[in-house]
Amino acid sequence: MIGKVIGALVGREIDRRDGEGGVKGAVLGAASVGLLRRLGPIGLLAGGAFLAKRAYDRRKESKAPITPA
């Protein structure tokens, strides 16, 4: 179950990067679930680490002071 959640989050990140939305993120998210399962616990840790890094970067960026141009 955790693998499916991580796959869904990976798919969402891919769709955010494209900006188009649609099937691409869903397909790549589903494929990532299969890949993460084959890698076992190391794959789940890698997928979770990827998502945690993205969330950390996004939070850090939102807290950065805005400087006038």
Give me the number of helical elements.
3
The average pLDDT is 75
Secondary structure class reads mainly alpha
Low-pLDDT segments: none
**General form:** flat
Strand coverage percent: under 5%
Major beta sheet, specifics? none
Helix content: over 70%
**N- to C-terminal distance:** 46 Å
Q: Please compute the radius of gyration using only Cα atoms.
A: 14 Å
| Strand and helix order | HHH
How many structural domains?
A: 1
| Number of strand segments | 0
Organism: Sphingomonas montanisoli
Protein name: DUF533 domain-containing protein
What can you tell me about this protein's structure?
The protein has one domain. The chain is an all-alpha fold and 69 residues long. It is built from three helices and no strands. The mean pLDDT is 75. It is flat, with a radius of gyration of 14 Å. Helix 1 runs antiparallel to helix 2, helix 1 crosses helix 3 and helix 2 crosses helix 3. 83% of the residues lie in helices and 0% in strands.
